[in-house]
Structures
1.
Amino acid sequence: VRRNPGEAEFHQAVREVLESLDPVVKKRPEYVEYGIIPRICEPNRQIIFKVNWQDDKGRVHTNRGFRVQFNSALGPYKGGLRFHPSVYLGIIKFLGFEQIFKNALTGMPIGGGKGGSDFDPKGKSDHEIMRFCQAFMTELSGHIGHDIDVPAGDIGVGGREIGYMFGQYKRMTGRYESGVLTGKGLTWGGSRARTEATGYGTVFFADEMLKLSNESFEGKKVVVSGSGNVAIYALEKLNQLGATVVAMSDSGGYIVDEGGIDLAQMQELKEVRRGRISEYADANSSARFVEGGQIWDVPCDIALPCATQNELSIGGARALIKNGCTLVAEGANMPSTPDAIRAFRDGGVRFAPGKAANAGGVATSALEMQQNASRDSWSFEHTEERLQDIMVGIHERCAETAEEYGRPGDYVTGANIAGFIRVADAMMALGVI
Ligand code: NDP
């Protein structure tokens, strides 16, 4: 805490991982001897830069850009870029730290990193977004590359922003280096199923949890928070598996539609018009909008928090438990607070942490890198099948590791230990560097 003052989210993420590692360190004292824990908690490199850009009226704005290259023992740094006014070093470091273990869990050759800016894309015109993305990439371009660091999207960064950044990188370097960013459009090097991957992957993971007790999503009532990339494609897969999504949200509040939220309308509202979720209730008499409040008050069998960090606190956890929710799988990064996770554990709610349940996005980004490297383009079905296999594999790895370390059913412990061991062993093999 003294070494990284004021970085509350980073402290929270580190504490959560370290708390799980006691049994590993006891079993493998060489990790201590080689200083693996302090080394893994310190980013290899943190880049902070100024981003000047002009709005449509010609006024100049100054934002701050970040890229934290955390750990590259397993491969090039890999992790998204977040554009949101709440972004500061502590947020980027928490996300980068989580990313190390998540990427390790996928079994693919990718290290951990994260970046972003405190730029607020809300209410900006297309031209303003483009000028910001170009200014951001002008500063970032010298630090990335297909075998150095490969950024992708996150909150506030989707296909449009990746396009503007890729264009600027191409202009600056004079090279068509497809593998420098992932989340690209399908006609210029993107992978089919990348857009869907995080939401689909979270549902695949939860489905594996259900299968252990011979259950399925068929007929289940689900609450999904958020209405961005992850939430929308969780909704799509849930519909395909026969579940009903009764509530979704954005930062203004949540909507409830007991008959099930309509995917096509939600896509049109959020992906095309970039509107507010309250407009969904304006257009549908079966739906109601609740301003502010907490979505977790809506009764459900399963909850998928897919919006942002610390959105599900102890009050939300208690409401879910009281209403009979039996499974929570995180589509977002660290959406549940530590006391909410404890409440789930004590209340017998099955719980999957984001670093396991939402790893489908980065795994499919790694598949995009493979396609770029071989100048190939796979079908949707093939890519989705590989995504599902990867999620089944992550689920198995977490469940088996939890069992091996005497915590059966504890996916938090399983994910932290399995991810850590893979990175720690690679760090040992590479020596003290
Ligand atoms: P988007 O920007 O597409 O969507 C974010 C959604 O969350 C929006 O509906 C937004 O509402 C809502 N939201 C943001 N902040 C709050 C808040 N404080 N309270 C309530 N709602 C809020 O982002 P993504 O869907 O890509 O990301 C969502 C989460 O998933 C993040 O935690 C991200 O790190 C994680 N994730 C994303 C991956 C990906 O592939 N995209 C991969 C792995 C994890 P509003 O529009 O009002 O701000």
2.
Amino acid sequence: MEKIFRELDELKFELPSWAFSDAGTRFAVFHEEGAARNVFERIEDAALVHELTGCCPSVALHIPWDRVENWEELKEFAKEKGLRIGAINPNLFQDPDYKYGSLTNPSEKIRKKAIAHVMECVDIAVKTGSKVISLWLADGTDYPGQDDFRSRKKRLEESLKYIYDNMPEDMYLFIEYKFFEPAFYHTDIPDWGTSYLLAEKLGERALVLVDLGHHAQGTNIEYIVATLLSERKLGGFHLNNRKYADDDLTIASINPYEVFLIFKEIVFAWRDPELSDFSKKVVFMFDQAHITKPKILATVQSVVMAQELFAKALLIDENRLREAQKKCDVVEAEEALMDAFRTDVRPLLREYRKRKNLPEDPIKVFREGNYMEKRRRERR
Ligand code: AOS
Ligand code: ZN
Ligand code: ZN
């Protein structure tokens, strides 16, 4: 138990600022009474989640949604609330100029505008003490013939190279992929292989970001994670769950076993002496949109869920599993995993939180507190 507690101490999550403000589907945006209205309130909400769970010390920002005049002030504000600024996410998908692409756009003028936006984000990262730029592009085409694939690839590589070469030497560039949407015919960065190819050409500080909702049905994500870990090319995750497409649902709400198997790859990489230095730097960010759930409560629930599944992965008897693998005893190998997966880790986590003076049941504490009432009053 002591060993597991020490390992749990190293498990930190990064909360996205955008999870705390009104969001919507393609069809409508729904208002939650008391939801954060600006970046300061979003940081306050993230700080509350951290206060209740003790494992969410950083908050990711999205620019321009979170843009402020004075970045030092925002950094200080976060610090006072017990947080630091995490990944800076450039928004290259809402400006109408990007209709035909951002970093890949056929127009040099628009490409330069997109690059300038990312460079502004680099500057914000420097000012807020962040070390990560996390890039997701909506770039793609809707119809065959719309643009030339190889030309777009070349433009993308050139744009990324400019960004990478002009970033501070201790800053990381995460490249996220998604197999479709918003473009429906082709997407410029559709899969981990393309992200990897781009990252590999750029250099050591360019890494792949795996969003759990960005794959075709049936894709074996844990295998992708293992591959990227072994190549030292995994930067981080956008944790969420999906049933149909990029649903951005609460982690493990649809398929907890998949999340457990992904965490197993992380746990084994943490414990591998050749990989632990690298794998312990992998960032666990959430990227979820809570539309039918209250946002802060849903975030607390997500953290609890992720922590539980990670604790289950920590319980896997690695020696037993490897012995079974050596003998090609498939049933025994699977049972070694399932024994851990079937374990109820809630008592263990309650004990863990108690020792850290954290609420044993953060969901209950949030529900019973007057956190939302206060917010509804103050945020009219
Ligand atoms: C979009 O599908 C991606 O998951 C991005 O990470 C995006 O930047 C984020 O969801 C915020 O809109
Ligand atoms: Zn994402
Ligand atoms: Zn997404």
